[in-house]
Amino acid sequence: MTEIVNAGGEQVHVVESGPVDGVPLLLTSGLGGAWFDWDPTVELLRDGYRITVFDRPGLGLSPAAASRPTLRRDTAIMEALAERAGRPVIVVAHSMAAFPAEALARTSPERVLGVVLADPSCERVRPGATVPRLGAVLTPLAAATGAVLGATRLATVAGPFGRRQILRRTSRRGEAVPDEVVRSVYRRGTVIGTVIAEEIAYREMAADLARLRDRRPFPPVPLVVVTALGDLDTPEKRREWAEGHAELAAMTPHGRQVELPDALHMVPLDRPDVLADAVSEIHQASSETA
């Protein structure tokens, strides 16, 4: 089932599948991603879980955002979707979406059964560091850029081309859906403007999450952090990425890291088996402690 729902004051495109009485999963894509990035993972899980995949405002088939990307906004969206599920959810987040996924666990632990982070962003922000707050100024420019590209039809070329170039560097599998579905999303000027806006918001969101960590503990729920190392070209980068993810896994005594030496960044496309195993592991662990 696919529909547009109100969540946290935003209109978001939601795709639901699986038995209505299944353990609820909430899946959220990385920067610029769309619901179909999760299709291979959903295929492995749909028989036993009630799965909700959503597009953040302005991405996928979601309408343009009412407010700019922030940690608070994206966490509120996830909280509303978790509440809509009716009971605690297992959150599966890719890349930049790890920021609001972690924030949700910290601010609304009663709504979270466990967390799977797929090659998550793990930006380190030094204590006391000043992060430029440019989002409020630059986000309208990003939206205007997207609108111009859409109005001039340049988005029909630039969007799909950009998606192909990014996927060539981050996935060995490629798209899980037909080309016309991909084009229907990435030819939208709104999507291009939103991708730019999320890039602008990235450091702000990382800084806000760092401050939240000082105020709210991570709950003692199962956590699996999946680390892809195949697209990092030096031993130093691989070591730093793995160490950052190890720190995330250590946020809870029930955390575990899974390293994939040859996997690229688009883990939901390329290694859905690993994510499905992580979800099953969390489900089993939560059942044993219930």
Describe this structure in words.
This protein has 290 residues and is α/β, with parallel strands linked by helices. It has one domain (2-128, 205-289): 3-Layer(aba) Sandwich (Rossmann fold). Helix content is 47%, strand content 18%. The protein has helices at 39-45, 71-85, 98-107, 135-151, 155-170, 179-186, 189-215, 235-249, 267-270, 272-289; strands at 2-7, 10-17, 23-28, 49-55, 89-94, 112-118, 223-228, 255-260. It has an 8-stranded mixed beta sheet, with helices on both faces. Strand 3 (23-28), helix 1 and strand 4 form a beta-alpha-beta unit. Helix 1 crosses helix 10 (272-289), helix 3 packs across helix 7 (189-215) and helix 4 (135-151) packs antiparallel against helix 7. The protein is globular.
Strand content: 15-25%
Task: Write down the overall geometry.
Answer: globular
Overall helicity: 40-55%
CATH superfamily: Alpha/Beta hydrolase fold, catalytic domain
Q: Rg to the nearest angstrom?
A: 18 Å
Strand count, sense and barrel status of the largest sheet are: 8 strands, mixed
CATH C-level class is Alpha Beta
Would you list the SSEs in sequence order as H and E?
Answer: EEEHEHEHEHHHHEHEHH
Low-confidence stretches: none
Query: What class, by secondary structure content?
Result: alpha/beta
| Number of domain modules | 1
Assembly state: single chain
Task: Tell me the layout of helices and strands.
Layout: E1 2-7, E2 10-17, E3 23-28, H1 39-45, E4 49-55, H2 71-85, E5 89-94, H3 98-107, E6 112-118, H4 135-151, H5 155-170, H6 179-186, H7 189-215, E7 223-228, H8 235-249, E8 255-260, H9 267-270, H10 272-289
Parallel strand pairs: 3-4, 3-5, 5-6, 6-7, 7-8
Antiparallel strand pairs: 1-2, 2-4
Helix pairs in contact: 1-10, 2-3, 3-7, 4-7, 5-6
